[in-house]
């Protein structure tokens, strides 16, 4: 695709980036590329910019968005791990981590991200419902233990339900739930991400 076919916004950011390759304009440029369907270009620009500004949150989020579009979910989580740790109220990063975790079959990790979302946006009924459903499934599968649950006093305690097991193992034991339940939740999450995108565009 030639540059003359690019959105005018790309031309604007690209000129600024070419004038000063060390500026942080690489982040909006990468996002503009992504929205135009130029995901590989978005990833390239974002990675190049992050070499100069490795701690720039906006750059990491822009890269993670492009990686998500490429279905590179493990890389999304890797890029956003420091973001959600240092800036937990970055709701876009938390949603990307949550959905990527679900796509990788890591519902416990997804639940943690959703709980952070709910903490910062307690009025979000969709997120509240997702947290409830994920918690219910985790308790049923024995993958989540309430912090207030008493720990077994004896190693040979027969209450196996209070012992943690890997989320991946739980999913493998219930493939039908993986195919139906998680896919349904992922579709809902995608709708939520689209809503966030519309908000960003109008703000």
Explain what the structure shows.
The structure is a single chain. The protein has about 200 residues and is an all-alpha fold. The protein has two domains: about 1-70, Serine Threonine Protein Phosphatase 5, Tetratricopeptide repeat (Alpha Horseshoe); about 75-203, no CATH class. The chain has ten helices and no strands. The chain has helices spanning about 10-20, 25-35, 40-50, 55-70, 75-85, 90-105, 105-120, 125-140, 165-175, 175-200. α2 packs antiparallel against α3 (about 40-50), α6 packs antiparallel against α7 (about 105-120) and α7 (about 105-120) runs antiparallel to α8 (about 125-140). The longest helix has 28 residues, at about 175-200. Mean pLDDT is about 80; it is low at about 145-170.
N-to-C CA distance: 30 Å
Nearest-integer average pLDDT: 78
- Percent range of helical residues: 55-70%
**Outline:** elongated
Q: Radius of gyration, Cα only, in angstroms? A: 20 Å
Please summarize what this structure is:
This protein is an all-alpha fold.
Fold blueprint:
Elements: H1 8-19, H2 26-35, H3 39-52, H4 57-69, H5 73-86, H6 91-103, H7 107-120, H8 125-141, H9 167-173, H10 175-202
Helix pairs in contact: 1-2, 2-3, 2-4, 3-4, 4-5, 4-6, 5-6, 6-7, 6-10, 7-8
Label this structure with key terms.
single chain; 203 residues; mainly alpha; Serine Threonine Protein Phosphatase 5, Tetratricopeptide repeat; 2 domains; 70% helix; 0% strand
